[in-house]
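Incident review: delayed structure delivery

Summary: a single-chain prediction request sat in the queue longer than the usual turnaround. Root cause was a stuck worker, restarted by the on-call engineer. No data loss occurred. The affected request and its eventual output are reproduced below so the record is complete for anyone auditing the incident later.

Affected input:
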Amino acid sequence: MKRKCFIVAIALLAMCSAVRGQTEKKKFEFKPIATGMMSVGANFPADSKVGYGFNLDRAYLGVEGKWGKGWSFKFVADCGKSSAVDDYQRIVYIKNALVQWKSDRFSVRAGLIGTNVFGTQEKFWGRRYVMKTFQDEYKFGSSADLGAAIEWSPSRVVSLDAIIVNGEGFKKLQIERGLLYGVGITVKPVEGLTLRAYGDLNQKPDDSTPKKTLNAMVGYKNQTFSIAVEGSFIFDKETQTLTETQTQTLTQTETETLTQTQTQAQSQSQILNRNQSGLSAYGSVKVGKCDIFARYDLLTSKNNWNKSKDGSMALAGVGIDLCKYVKMAPNVKVWIPKEGKATPSVNVNFQFAL
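Output delivered after worker restart:
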């Protein structure tokens, strides 16, 4: 009898353990992350550097998990291009490695996190596989960095966020002097309307002059169409030391930036204004199962210091969801530099995502 009771007790204990294990498994959820962005296209006129063919634009591989009350983690590896190596090669970076706690109105992230610079715009644009958002495309900010961020929603209308990171992006994780401090506010006064303002201060460890970035965005989206406009600004200065010979070759405008004390010295310092600004407008209209989209970018620099890269871009295309996991977007793009000839291109972009 005692032996039977002992066996029954063991069986009950095993059943309880199994039920408990199933309950714990339900609390801990894993989700794989796998995204590939490819394109095929041609530039006109084709030359030795830019012609036509297939291209792997980006690939993300990783995993995210959730457990407990509001806790989650995310790890993502990014395989993409780098100007430091040949174009045919790809370099793998760690894009995200973070832990997050989130409640109904408050969240905290720490680690290698996604920044708050253009996340709202990227979701609104919705076609990262076709082209990056303005700030990402023209290097006004980084999509990820090492640090911490908080978000607080005091109401359904207003959301506030703040971030402190290294300020060097996810490709450079070394510790230097100086950090990047950013704050933002998002307002949704009515359904579909989004107002966003963001600003940050980068202490620039490689320069004594801090760099400031501002961005403002207005967008409206419903089930039929979407439209948005954003303006971006960089306030930046660079100090250069000039020899006496170099000083004699300065233009009148550049000479006026030098102080009287500096002019009397044999070795002088010139303050170069590296301010930049830009405008981006984009929208889409749903026609059946397709989305017709268009976008226009304008990039300028103060006193034309970066005129070799200044210009405007026009983009138009059709977005097609081939299935749940595959998107396709035939499109036409024209880059019109401030100096030089326009470069049109025809592309078909693809995204494969779980």
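Verification: Helices lie at 2-27, 119-125, 134-137, 244-248, 252-255, 260-264.
Action items: add queue-age alerting; document worker restart procedure.
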